[in-house]
Amino acid sequence: MIYYLHEWILQWSQGTAWEDILSPVRVFRYLSVRSIGAVITALAFSLLMGPRIIRWLKDLKFRQFYADKSEQAGGMVRVTDKKGTPTMGGVLIVLAMDFSVIIWAQWNAMILLCLLSLVVLSALGFYDDYLKVTRQDAEGVKSKVKLWVQLMLGCSVALYLYFVPSTRPLIDEIMIPFFKEPLLTHASVLGMGLTLLAIMGSSNAVNLTDGLDGLAIGCTVIVTGVFIVLTYIAGNANWSSYLQVPHVPGASELTVFCAAMMGACVGFLWFNCHPAQVFMGDTGSLALGGVLGIMAVLIHQPLILMIAGGVFVLEALSVMLQVSYFKYHKRRTGVGKRILLRAPLHHHFEQLGWHENQVVMRFYILAGLFASLALLTLKIR
Q1: Which backbone phi and psi does 63 adopt, to 5 degrees?
Q2: Nearest-5° angle of CA 316, CA 321, CA 325?
Q3: Alpha-carbon distance values, 114 to 2, 40, 79, 94, 165 (Å)
Q4: At what angle do helices 356-376 and 215-235 cross, to 10 degrees?
C-alpha cells in the first residue's frame, strides 16, 4: 500500500512546486526501507494486539485443559502445568503478517501465493484447534484430512509455477545446495515432488516442533532470518550473479514478507516464552511451516530448507523413526520398542531430566548452527 501511495504522490507532484518538497518520499521505493518497516509494523501490531487477542481467546474459552499426546502416552512429567493456557494464538501471527505485508509489500504473484497459502493453512490449523478445545481432546482433525489439504495446496502451487512460463524453471530445474548449476533439467515430475515435500514436510515438521514454550516460534525466527538473506539475494540480479545462485525476478519482494514474518514471530515470542501466556496451536505452526516451504520453492532452493530448518527436520525424523521402529518390533515380537524415551525429540530430552528452558535454549543454539550452514552454501559452490 505504501509503495503504491508513494508512487502516486511522486507522479502527482511531478512538475509542480511540491516536487522537491516531496522527493524524500522516494525512500519508500527501497526494499531495505520497506523491509525494516515491515518488521517494525508486524512487531508493534503483535505487542499491541497480543494482550487483547489473549483476553479474547480466554473469553471464548479457547483453552487447553486436555493432556497433549505425549502426556496421554503416559510417563510424561512436566515441571509446569500448561493446562488452561489459551491456544489458537497463531491468529495473532497471521493477522500481524497480513497487516504488515499489505502495507509494505509491492504486490506480485509470489506475494499472493504466500499470503494465500498462509490463510489456507492457518484456517486448517484453526479448525483443528477448534475441534481440540471444544472436545477437550488432543485428537483434532484427522491426519488424513490435514495431509489432503496440504497436498492440494502443494499441487496447486506446483502446477501454477509450472504452467506460467516465467516460473517454470522453478519446477523444471533441480537445484542442490553447494552446487551452482542445476543437477537436472526438464525434470518437472521430480520438481513437483520436491515442491510437495518442501511445503508438506515443512508444515508438519514445524507443527511437531511446537511442544515447548517458545521452541517452534523461536526456531522459526532463526530460519526466517536466513530466508531474509536468501530472498534478497535471489531477487537481486547482481548479488545472485556474484554468488552464483539462481536469480528469480520478483523474489526480492519476498524479503518484505520474511521481514513481516520475523516481526510477527518475535512479537508472538514475547507472549509465548516460558511460562507461555498463549500457545500458537496448529493455527500458527501449520501456516508458518508451509510458508517457509513455499518460499524455499519460490527462490529455487527447496532443499536449502532442510539445512536451514535442521531442527525441524530432526524433530520430524525422530517421530518417523520412533513410530516405524515401534511398529516393526511389535510385528516381530508382539511388543513395541522405542528408540527414544519420547518423541518428538524435545520430549526425549525432557525425559532425560533437562528443564524445559534448557531444551529450548539448546535447540536455539542448534538452530543457529544450521542457519549458519545454510548461509555457508552461498560461498561454497
Answers
A1: -120, 155
A2: 155
A3: 19, 20, 38, 12, 19
A4: 10
The amino acid occupying position 357 is N
Whether the Cβ atoms of residue 215 and residue 232 lie closer than 8 Å to each other? no
Q: What region, left, alpha or beta, does residue 137 occupy, with left being phi > 0 and alpha being psi -120 to 50 degrees? A: beta
3-state secondary structure of 131: helix
Per-residue DSSP letter, 88: -
Give the whole-angstrom CA distance, residue 314 versus residue 319. 9
Residue 41 and residue 260 in contact, taking contact as beta carbons nearer than 8 Å: yes
Do 300 and 266 form a contact (C-beta atoms < 8 A)? no
109-135 vs 253-272: helix axis angle to the nearest 10? 20
pLDDT tens across the length of the chain (381 residues): 888 887 888 888 888 888 888 888 888 889 999 999 999 999 999 999 999 999 999 988 887 765 665 554 445 555 556 778 898 999 999 999 999 999 999 999 999 999 999 999 999 999 999 988 887 766 778 888 999 999 999 999 999 999 999 999 999 999 999 888 898 899 999 999 999 999 999 999 999 999 899 999 999 999 999 999 999 999 999 999 999 999 999 999 999 999 999 999 999 999 999 999 999 999 999 999 999 999 999 999 999 999 999 999 999 999 999 999 888 888 888 788 888 888 899 999 999 999 999 999 999 999 999 999 999 999 887
Rounded CA gap, 286 and 303, in Å? 19
Q: Please list the alpha-helical segments (H only) found in 210-355.
A: 215-235, 237-243, 253-272, 281-298, 304-308, 310-333, 345-351
Beta-bridged to residue 23, according to DSSP, are none
Closest CA to 187 of 168, 201, 200, 202: 168
CA distance 154 to 201: 10
